[in-house]
């Protein structure tokens, strides 16, 4: 409902889509990163920032990459937890194409914070470790294996230093029947994960142990 002004023939546009800074369409689209077949963009809608995860121009027409992006969406939509990046769905964004729409996390990756981790009080680091364990336990409770848990895929919010797990591009479940092959990052991958394609939560637990070691020492130990 629009607000009525002193002149009954005039109405405020506050709630009808024409308020300054409020747009129905995504605007102010900026590239955050581009790596491999994936492009991450930041975009504004209704005065809020979002992240759009889409395919690069070269990958957009290849079925294998379209399938990977679709699988990631299906995995993400199974989860709703404060320690996991929130996903709203997939949209065909003008000028971008099909994109997974996710919350924008104002913060830094754990990887970028590790060099200064020694200046963070031990109690706070212990809380971060606890939050990461809780998030991973939730992920596993949904039948999902992340398969690429590492400091680069863990965000720490600027407000409150809260943990959020991101990037489920390599995630897998027992229910999915596509893209079954070993995956992960070598320094954080269990020996078994490097050889086997079946999802196993124990692989994530191995990676978690290495991440917790980094968190405790304030650096990548390996």
Would you write up a description of this structure?
It is a single chain. The chain has helices at 63-76, 110-113, 122-141, 201-217; strands at residues 27-35, 38-45, 48-55, 87-93, 97-103, 107-109, 144-145, 154-157, 163-165, 172-173. The strands form three sheets. A five-stranded antiparallel beta sheet has the order 1-2-3-5-4, with helices on one face. A three-stranded antiparallel beta sheet has the order 6-8-9. A two-stranded antiparallel ribbon has the order 7-10. By secondary structure, it is α+β, with helices and mostly antiparallel strands. The protein is globular, with a radius of gyration of 20 Å. Helix 3 packs antiparallel against helix 4 (201-217). 25% of the residues lie in helices and 24% in strands. It contains four helices and ten strands; from the N terminus they run βββαβββααββββα. The longest helix is centred in the middle third of the chain and has 20 residues, at 122-141.
Write the layout of secondary structure elements.
Blueprint: E1 27-35, E2 38-45, E3 48-55, H1 63-76, E4 87-93, E5 97-103, E6 107-109, H2 110-113, H3 122-141, E7 144-145, E8 154-157, E9 163-165, E10 172-173, H4 201-217
Antiparallel strand pairs: 1-2, 2-3, 3-5, 4-5, 6-8, 7-10, 8-9
Helix pairs in contact: 3-4
The major sheet is characterized as: 5 strands, antiparallel
Principal-axes shape call: globular
Range of helix content: 10-25%
Strand order of the largest sheet: 1-2-3-5-4
The assigned structural class equals alpha+beta
Strand/helix succession: EEEHEEEHHEEEEH
Alpha-carbon distance between the termini?
59 Å
Overall average pLDDT: 86
Please indicate the percent range of residues in DSSP E strands (runs of 2 or more): 15-25%
Q: Segments where pLDDT lies below 50 for 5+ residues?
A: 1-15
Total DSSP helices: 4
Q: What is the alpha-carbon Rg in Å?
A: 20 Å
The number of distinct β-strands equals: 10
């Amino acid at each position: 409902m629009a607000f009525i002004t002193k002149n009954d023939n005039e109405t405020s546009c506050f709630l009808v889509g024409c308020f300054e800074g409020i747009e129905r369409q995504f605007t102010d689209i900026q590239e955050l990163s581009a790596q491999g077949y994936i492009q991450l963009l930041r975009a504004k809608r209704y005065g809020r920032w979002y992240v759009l995860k889409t395919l690069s121009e070269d990958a957009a027409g290849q079925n294998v990459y379209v399938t990977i992006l679709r699988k990631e969406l299906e995995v993400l939509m199974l989860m709703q937890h404060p320690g996991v990046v929130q996903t709203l769905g997939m949209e065909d964004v003008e000028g971008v194409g099909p994109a997974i729409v996710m919350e924008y996390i104002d913060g830094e990756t754990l990887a970028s914070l590790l060099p200064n981790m020694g200046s963070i009080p031990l109690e706070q680091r212990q809380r971060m470790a606890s939050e990461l364990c809780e998030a991973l336990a939730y992920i596993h409770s949904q039948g999902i294996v992340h398969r690429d848990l590492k400091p680069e895929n863990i965000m720490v919010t600027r407000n409150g230093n809260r943990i959020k797990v991101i990037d489920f591009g390599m995630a897998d479940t027992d229910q999915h029947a596509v893209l079954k092959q070993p995956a992960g990052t070598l320094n954080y991958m269990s020996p078994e994960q490097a050889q086997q394609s079946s999802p196993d939560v124990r692989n994530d637990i191995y990676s978690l142990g290495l991440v917790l070691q980094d968190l405790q020492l304030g650096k990548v130990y390996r």
